[in-house]
Amino acid sequence: MAMGLFRVCLVVVTAIINHPLLFPRENATVPENEEEIIRKMQAHQEKLQLEQLRLEEEVARLAAEKEALEQVAEEGRQQNETRVAWDLWSTLCMILFLMIEVWRQDHQEGPSPECLGGEEDELPGLGGAPLQGLTLPNKATLGHFYERCIRGATADAARTREFLEGFVDDLLEALRSLCNRDTDMEVEDFIGVDSMYENWQVDRPLLCHLFVPFTPPEPYRFHPELWCSGRSVPLDRQGYGQIKVVCADGDTLSCICGKTKLGEDMLCLLHGRNSMAPPCGDMENLLCATDSLYLDTMQVMKWFQTALTRAWKGIAHKYEFDLAFGQLDSPGSLKIKFRSGKFMPFNLIPVIQCDDSDLYFVSHLPREPSEGTPASSTDWLLSFAVYERHFLRTTLKALPEGACHLSCLQIASFLLSKQSRLTGPSGLSSYHLKTALLHLLLLRQAADWKAGQLDARLHELLCFLEKSLLEKKLHHFFIGNRKVPEAMGLPEAVLRAEPLNLFRPFVLQRSLYRKTLDSFYEMLKNAPALISEYSLHVPSDQPTPKS
């Protein structure tokens, strides 16, 4: 009973306490607090959403940047792979091209079979007839022209050579008498070279070229260094060399007596008082460049001109003519002036023999038809003039009597000379004509050079020259040409050298090439009229006209 009453009382009390009317203020604020809380929660939620959006945008931006970097890296890697592949392919193509070029030079050197086969065939690759379809005079006209205008020059050349050789012998002997053998350069006998000594000179006035070798005083010697001896030289300096002045024992330092002051009562056992050489340190006395052991061309020019002037003063009273220097850029360009007003030019060229061969270093540089980079004064041009003369003499022995090879060269040289006077000099010279002839002599059979084939061989010579001009390539006859007979005795270094392209300036100088090509075709165009005119108007007692 009591427990039941307690439970009823507990229920009543609980009901009274939980009735809403008993606590009006507290219960009235609950809804307001909930709304504020909800509003704050909504605002916070919005902030969280905005932050989430910002983070998502940041993540997207970073992902885009990462993807871009990966793409750039991939493209760089692909480009590197492509570049490596391209470089490898370019290298392979270059090697293949060089192999083809070497093969072509070995198997297709010289004039084309079409040009060698006949005078009316076409040259391959020219896109037309040889010589642009221009025709040369016939055999009868050429023969008549040669007899009336050129043949007489041979007799005139012989008389000129005989006179000049006697005079030059006397002049060099006077020069030697003025030199001190212990301190001065020693001058040797002259050597006749070029067209006057190869019997194809036709241009007037007749001009003799004489090499004058010289050697240093003891105990010195000249040590030549060719461009093909392992030195790194520019392409335009190929064919040149330098000459080092050394002592006879191979050392550039002289005996100690040349560097030490000996007492008056002391004498060097190797050199007496009268045979002591100047010290090697004073290289200017040996015509070397400043602070150099290499021979200087300018020093040689000054020495040679001074020596010739002194020698002429010693013998001038014996002759009834005057001697003067000609071209300023050539140390041995001389001119004999007769009282009658006539003159006779000739060249005395100081040269240095290359070892024991017939190669000679020429002191002065040739004048080029265009401006170029000036060469060093220690660069010497290597001349093959003596070898060229020997080759022509040796070849003549195997050719038929009255062979027309020199006649072809004389006619071509005559046409070139007249054309140069009409339009001015070009990049083509008589040396290029001779080089082309030497190549043909090596390619043709001896029977092909009979006198009756003058017109065919002249046409072939001009075809060869045209082909060389169009290809801008005319190889030097001796350098790198292993087809030259061994009997010529060329140095092995010259035979092993790379072929030297005499037409290389045409590759670099387009204006010179265009002028030369135009002048060449103009020469061919004028040839028939020029030959006919000189054949008709030149009397038989005056073989060549005076210019």
Short description:
Residues 1-15 form the signal peptide. The protein is of the alpha+beta class. It has a domain at 139-248 and 285-536: 2-Layer Sandwich (Beta Polymerase, domain 2), CATH 3.30.460.
Could you explain how this protein is built, in words?
A hairpin with a 7-residue loop joins strand 6 (321-325) and strand 7. The protein has helices at 2-17, 24-107, 113-117, 139-178, 195-198, 297-315, 385-398, 405-423, 430-443, 454-471, 492-496, 504-508, 510-537; strands at residues 186-187, 191-193, 208-215, 220-226, 240-247, 321-325, 333-338, 343-353, 360-362, 380-383. Strands 1, 2, 3, 4, 5, 6, 7, 8, 9 and 10 form a 10-stranded mixed sheet that branches. The chain has a domain at 139-248 and 285-536: Beta Polymerase, domain 2, CATH 3.30.460. By secondary structure, the protein is an alpha+beta fold.
- The count of DSSP E runs of length 2 or more, i.e. the number of strands, is 10
What is the count of helical runs? Answer: 13
Low-confidence stretches: 23-31, 106-127, 250-254, 270-281, 365-374, 538-547
**Per CATH, which architecture of the domain at 139-248 and 285-536?**
2-Layer Sandwich
Query: What order do the helices and strands follow?
Result: HHHHEEHEEEHEEEEEHHHHHHH
CATH fold-type name of the domain at 139-248 and 285-536: Beta Polymerase, domain 2
